[in-house]
Amino acid sequence: MSTGKPRVVLGVGAGIAAYKVCELLRRLTESGHDVRVVPTADALRFVGEPTWAALSGHPVSPNVWDGVSEVPHVRLGQTADLVFVAPATADLLARAAHGLADDLLTNTLLTARCPVVFAPAMHTEMWEHPATRDNVATLRARGAIVVEPASGRLTGADTGPGRLPDPAELFEVARRVLARGDRERGDAARDLAGRHVVVSAGGTREAIDPVRFIGNRSSGLQGYALARTAVARGARVTVVAANVALPDPAGARVVPVGSAEEMRKAVLEAAGDADAVVMAAAVADFRPAAYQGSKIKKTPGGEPEPIALVKNPDILAELGERRRPGQVIVGFAAETDDVLANGRAKLVRKRSDLLVVNQVGENLAFGTPDNAAVVLDADGSSVDVPRGAKEELADTVWDLVAARLKPRS
User: Fold this and answer.
1) Going edge to edge, which strands form the sheet with 252-257?
2) pLDDT digits (tens, 9 = 90+) for 347-369
3) Which distant-in-sequence residues (6+ apart) come within 8 Å of 260 by Cβ?
4) Dihedral Cα 92, 77, 189, 270, nearest 10 deg
5) 81-108: b or e for each residue (b if 16 or more CB lie within 10 Å)?
6) Is the pLDDT of residue 126 over 80?
7) Measured CA distances, 303 to 177, 213, 295, 299, 308 (Å)
8) How many Cα atoms occupy the beta-carbon half-sphere of 360 within 13 Å?
9) pLDDT score for 182
10) Mean pLDDT, to the nearest integer, of 256-260?
11) Before 87, cis peptide (omega within 30)?
């Protein structure tokens, strides 16, 4: 019987990271999703059946022969709104890519007609092996979303790419994929599949001396919302993050930077093969002309010396000048006065395809979970985005970007 809740099949592979998936399951159930856990037989060596059953409220088995009257090997995939596999081991990715159906989870993957997400976790050598890379490419070509693993401490003393992303960030991927639509338009939910997008986030800091800097209030929330929604739509995502104190978005490669000069170098390098670049970061327009190697001291009764400023590089304008054919460039404009007039002038000056203009100020845009904006198009049209979650603005931006991207030959 249908519960009326979004139906999620949570597949669990036989990896040590299975214990982290308990937190993902808890977040899914507590947010109103009906979750059926389908582990592989060996996954139960890491986390036992009673734990999955207690957290999901459903019986758990890896066996196609349990509950045969309900035909679970067909029904689970047919009725799911999302199949999310974590950890997706090298073995499980290989079996899925080759269409094997030797347990309940692989049968479910073959019958699913909803979005399917794999969150790999394995040692670096296994992740980077040509066989695994080919299997990942095959799954992505078929429309599955394969989230890039995080880098960090692995089992034992090993460190490198292959770590399961934070469960809270995996939950955000699941939530965004489900938000994109129902099973009937699953392909539309992955309209950035095979694309590489670059997103800048946060705010640059320009050092005055070893302890002081010129900065701004940007938190990186909008840039990270853009990254999460792009991952959920199937893109390969690079985030150039300036001074952001947020968990890395699952599936995105994050390049940390500090100053405008550092951001320029990282963005231009990442943009080399990018289909789209979205400059959501607040880049300082100016920096001190001279850096003081020692802390500037306050002298009794004296006034501080004025700080001379020089212009920082205009990264958005340089992207507009250096763009590759077919590349889509999106800028952001934070304005306090004459918002639309300033935005239209900036759109022309920066040679961008789209410019997201929003009003900033106390409790507006910077550091808040919501945003409102007008997206200006180089063709003269515009789209009003009413105040709402920053993911909603992000999806609107990607809708407009996807419409501009040329089909792959």
Assistant:
1) 252-257, 236-242, 196-202, 276-279, 328-335, 354-359, 370-377, 382-389
2) 989 999 999 998 765 555 566 77
3) 204, 206, 283, 284, 287, 312, 313, 315
4) -10
5) bbbbbbbbbbbbbbbbbeeebebbbbbb
6) yes
7) 56, 19, 15, 8, 15
8) 17
9) 46
10) 96
11) yes
All residues at 6 or more sequence positions from 278 whose CB lies less than 8 Å from its CB, including other chains: 197, 198, 199, 200, 223, 226, 330, 332, 397, 401
User: Can you spell out the DSSP letters for 137-195?
Assistant: HHHHHTT-EEPPPEEEE-STT-EEEEEPPPHHHHHHHHHHHHHT--GGGTTGGGTTTT-
Instruction: Please confirm, yes or no, whether 312 is among the known catalytic residues.
Output: no
Cβ atoms < 10 Å from Cβ of 369: 11
Lowest-confidence range among 125-129, 210-214, 297-301?
297-301
SS3 100: coil
Residues 6 or more apart whose CB falls under 8 angstroms from that of 256 comprise 241, 242, 244
Confidence at residue 365, expressed as pLDDT on a 0 to 100 scale: 56
More confident residue, 161 or 336: 161
Please give the order of strands across the beta sheet that includes 116-120. Answer: 34-39, 7-12, 82-88, 116-120, 145-146
- What is the amino acid identity at position 10? L
Round to whole Å and give the CA distance between 85 and 174: 11
Would you state the pLDDT for residue 369? 76
Task: For residue 103, report the phi and psi dihedrals to the nearest 5 degrees.
Answer: -155, 180
Given 135, 216, 243, 371, the catalytic residue: 216
